[in-house]
Design brief:
The complex is a heterodimer of chains A (about 675) and B (about 190). By secondary structure, chain A is mainly beta. In chain A, the strands form ten sheets. In chain A, strands 6, 7, 8, 9, 10, 11, 12, 13, 14, 18 and 19 form an eleven-stranded mixed β-sheet that branches. Chain A has a six-stranded mixed β-sheet with strand order 42-41-44-45-39-46, with no helix packed on it. In chain A, strands 36, 37, 38, 40 and 43 form a five-stranded mixed β-sheet that branches. Chain B has one domain: Butyryl-CoA Dehydrogenase, subunit A, domain 3, CATH 1.20.140. Chain B is about 55% helix and about 15% strand. Chain B contains five helices and five strands, in the order αβββαααββα. The longest helix of chain B has about 30 residues. Chain B is elongated. The mean pLDDT of chain B is about 90. The chains are: A mainly beta (about 675), B alpha+beta (about 190). Chain A: It comes from Chitinophaga parva. Chain A: It holds the Pfam family nos_propeller. Chain A: It is found in: Cell envelope. Chain A: InterPro entries: Cupredoxin, N2O_reductase_N, Nitrous_oxide_Rdtase_Sec-dep, Nos_propeller, NosZ/Cyto_c_oxidase_sub2, WD40/YVTN_repeat-like_dom_sf.
């Protein structure tokens, strides 16, 4: 009986103490002083530009750090009705592929151009995962300047990573596919499916891209990559998974082997082999789209050929480094000596030593080969393993002070560890399921070790809920001290996969403020209001229109018939910063335009029904913006309304016929 | 007729050199500042041109119905260079003659050109500030937009500052030299 009483008392004690034994609250992680660290006062600029991939929205968004304020969305692989990208006659061709216009994509990774392993603020490269493409964005204008499609690739995932001087941008395929368009059974994967690593040459002065060569690798999934730097300058490293070469239920079948590979490619050698004619030129169709800033016109060229390099014909070009287990990130430290493979299913982080890799290659000390490619011995090339770092290591960046920071997808945290002794130094939670993380310049020779951004996959409870789908999330940490400190949550557009950031000074002062109208080389430019005209040619009507605060010329157009193809070529005559004009016409199923000062942009409109269609400026440009409008009269097909147009004194005057009609 | 002193003779090439600045630098500048123009706007008046942010200022003026400012509308840009050219030639003649009386006359011509320029500049500003398009979209009762001849003025949300620029200062210094030398010569009689 006494025992029972004791038991009851103990149970009561437990019950009473239960409510006080609270679980950790997710909101409690921010310490005092965080707000002042991210506060950017009105009129002050952010310290960094942060470029964030848009994932399934196909765009790139630009944020200021540390404030987390959204500055701009750059349409890259997706049409963008906001400014007519992909809709205007000038930009339509940017989205051309061998499959016609592909107006969307899945944009995963970004890379800022570098010189000597440091960011130079010239270009930003972006990949398209779905329809394999690589884009170059010009950071003077924040516009997409070029898009190159890639043949023999599917799931352009390990892309776009660059060499130290932006000599090459690489694009490794995620889904292995047969080369060309062979019709083969899927079950012949091992025999017929290949993965390719494409090397895109970047012209050092113009940035123009061209597909230099493609290295044909065994069928497997290339995941991420990074170029070497310093001593490892000549090398590129790609992580891989599914070296099991499974083609169904990969979730199980591609997770069987204890180790996959990091593929080490000597791109200098590859370049030499390509020059020496060791490659095989094969027919391949792919689109190359460029935006000519002078002509303000995108053009598409269909390329016909690619150069394939087979490792069999090119000794010492490709090696395999065993890496546990399904590595995702493949990250090179600022010195270029350490290669961090993040086996996303491994319970440790292997760190490889470049000098040991070189020794092993020299000694030809291999443990075998993978479809002809030599495999180095894991223990020979290992610098060491970070033990028990957390669950699901994905991606590592560096602070330039000898520390590495690895995102842990499964355990939702960032783990800081030392490259020297591989000891874990600190860990902080993320909210939740962090994918990539980013330190400004964290994958260059000179990281800026002040901030770290975690790009998270799930945001439960971080923001006001918005239905089943919640805001996408990034989190900013101060990493300047010994302990990492969460200082800001900021929502992002689209699903952020990876980001890049650089000091604002690298970019800010080089911005194009407006286009010099005297250099406007668009074939449909209208130089001044005196030169506006409307020209009919068959059922094509070209309207040469000008826009300036606060009117469009002409603002009265008659003599257009149902079914005509009307091209509005609108030239913005302004020559001042931040005075774009918009152009939209009622019922146009196409889009609208946003025309920068000094620019000419063309909108196609095909009226389907008769009626008066107002058109107007869509960007609030001046006190008289609402007045900046006009009318297009669309008459029935076959009617004989003459072509007339004008503004003010030259507006079409009533004719005798009009007067009669009105009566 | 008395000869010029050494000072008087030296002053002539100095003045001519200073006036040469009129072809190298702007004479006058009008600065405008408003919240929506964080960098400010500047109009620079040269001896034969008007430069700076004129297109932007013209863009603004369309709200209030001010005429478009354009170089072609100013006969001053032809007259003034000619006048200054003639004045320079006269200077050389005065130097060659080396006499006091021509120097006084030369100074007088300068004063006339300067006075006329200022009057003309004022009239020009008055005309632009007052002769507004009756159909202008924005009409503020009793409001005129004449910038100050020299100095500061608030025009609606714009702060306007009008002052000499590099060549203008050279011109002013020339005037001071001419006047002081003329007085000096008169006293040394």
């Amino acid at each position: 009986m006494k025992n029972i009483r004791l038991l009851l008392a103990a149970a009561a004690a437990v019950a009473v103490s239960m409510p006080s034994c609270k679980m950790k609250s997710t909101a409690a992680a921010v310490e005092g002083g965080a707000a002042s660290k991210v506060y950017v006062a009105p009129g002050k600029y952010d310290e960094f530009y942060n470029f964030v991939s848009g994932g399934f929205n196909g765009q790139v968004s630009v944020y200021g750090l540390p404030s987390g304020r959204l500055l701009k969305i750059i349409p890259v692989f997706s049409v963008f009705p906001e400014n007519g990208y992909g809709y205007s006659e000038e930009t339509k061709a940017m989205l051309n592929t061998t499959q016609g216009q592909v107006p969307w994509d899945d944009q995963h990774h970004l890379e800022l151009s570098q010189t000597n392993g440091e960011q130079d603020g010239r270009w930003l490269f972006a990949n398209a995962n779905n329809t394999p493409r690589v884009a170059r964005i010009d950071l003077k204008t924040f516009k997409t300047a070029e898009i190159l499609q890639l043949p023999n690739s599917a799931g352009n995932h390990s892309s776009p990573f660059i060499t130290e001087n932006t000599e090459y941008v690489v694009a490794g395929t995620r889904f292995s596919v047969p080369l060309g368009a062979e019709d083969v059974p899927i079950s012949s994967f091992k025999k017929n499916f290949k993965s390719t690593a494409s090397f895109i040459k970047v012209d050092s002065s113009t940035g123009h891209m061209s597909l230099a060569f493609q290295i044909v690798l065994p069928g497997m999934n290339l995941d991420l990559s990074h170029a070497g730097k310093g001593p490892s300058h000549d090398w590129f490293f790609f992580s891989s998974y599914n070296t099991e070469q499974a083609y169904t239920l990969l979730e199980v079948n591609a997770s069987q082997k204890d180790k996959d590979y990091i593929v080490a490619v000597n791109w200098k050698k590859a370049e030499e082999y390509a020059k020496a004619g060791k490659g095989k030129k094969v027919p391949a169709e792919y689109a190359h789209n460029t935006f000519d800033e002078q002509k303000q016109l995108a053009t598409s060229v269909m390329e016909k050929e690619t150069l394939l390099l087979d490792p069999k014909d090119c000794p010492d070009m490709v090696y395999m480094i065993p890496c546990p287990k399904s590595p995702h990130g493949c990250d090179i430290d600022p010195t270029g000596e350490y290669i961090v493979g993040s086996g996303k299913l491994a319970a440790l982080i292997p760190v490889f030593s470049f000098s040991k890799i070189m020794d092993a290659m020299q000694k030809k000390d291999f443990e075998g080969d993978f479809q002809g490619i030599p495999i180095l011995k894991y223990q020979d090339v290992l610098h060491g393993e970070v033990q028990k770092p957390g669950l699901g290591p994905l991606h590592t960046e560096f602070d330039g002070r000898g520390n590495a920071y690895t995102s842990m997808f499964l355990s939702s945290e960032v783990v800081k560890w030392s490259l020297k002794d591989l000891k874990v130094l600190d860990r902080v939670p993320t909210y939740y399921s962090v994918g990539h993380l980013m330190i400004p310049g964290g994958d260059t020779k000179k990281p800026n070790g002040k901030y770290l951004v975690a790009y998270n996959k799930i945001t439960k409870d971080r923001y006001l809920p918005t239905g089943p789908e919640l805001a996408q999330s990034a989190q900013l940490y101060d990493i300047s001290g010994d302990k990492m400190q969460l200082i800001l949550d900021y929502p992002t557009v689209g699903e952020p996969h990876y980001g890049q950031a650089c000091p604002a000074e690298l970019i800010r002062d080089k911005q194009v403020k407006f286009y010099d109208i005297t250099k406007n080389g668009n074939q449909y430019v209208t130089m001044g209001e005196k030169n506006v005209k409307v020209v009919r040619n068959g059922n094509r009507v070209d309207v040469y229109m000008t826009a300036i605060r606060s009117h469009l010329v002409p603002d009265n157009i008659e003599g257009v018939y149902v079914g005509d193809n009307v091209y509005f070529h609108v030239t913005n005559l302004e020559q001042d910063w931040d005075i774009p004009h918009g152009f939209a016409i009622k019922n146009n199923p196409n889009a609208e335009l946003l025309i920068m000062p000094g620019e000419t942009v063309t909108l196609k409109y095909t009226p389907l029904k008769q009626g008066i269609q107002p058109f107007y400026c869509t960007d609030f440009c001046s006190a008289l913006h609402q007045e900046m409008s006009g009318y297009l009269r669309v008459s029935p097909k076959g009617s004989n309304v003459p072509l007339r147009y004008g503004t003010g004194e030259t507006a079409p005057a009533p004719t005798a016929a009009d007067t009669v009609a009105a009566k | 007729m008395k000869k010029l002193t050494k000072t008087g003779r030296i002053s002539i090439p100095v003045v001519l050199l200073l006036l040469g600045a009129l072809w190298l630098f702007p004479m006058w500048r009008i600065d405008l500042r408003a919240p929506q123009y964080p960098g400010g706007l500047t109009m620079q008046i040269w001896i034969n041109d008007v430069k700076g942010d004129v297109p932007i200022i013209n863009g603004l003026n369309h709200y209030i119905g001010m005429k478009t400012i354009k170089k072609e509308d100013f006969k001053e840009f032809v007259v003034l260079p000619v006048a200054m050219g003639v004045f320079a030639v006269l200077g050389i003649v005065v130097l060659l003659m080396g006499k006091k009386l021509p120097y006084y006359i030369w100074t007088g011509v300068f004063v006339v050109i300067a006075a006329y320029s200022f009057i003309d500049f004022y009239k020009w500003e008055y005309d632009y500030g007052h002769n507004l398009d009756p159909g202008a979209p924005i009409q503020v009762p009793g409001m005129a937009y004449q910038p100050p001849l020299i100095g500061y003025k608030q025009l609606l949300n714009f702060e306007v500052l009008s002052q000499p620029d590099v060549a203008g200062w050279c011109y002013i210094v020339s005037g001071i030299i001419l006047a002081s030398v003329a007085i000096y010569e008169w006293k040394k009689r």
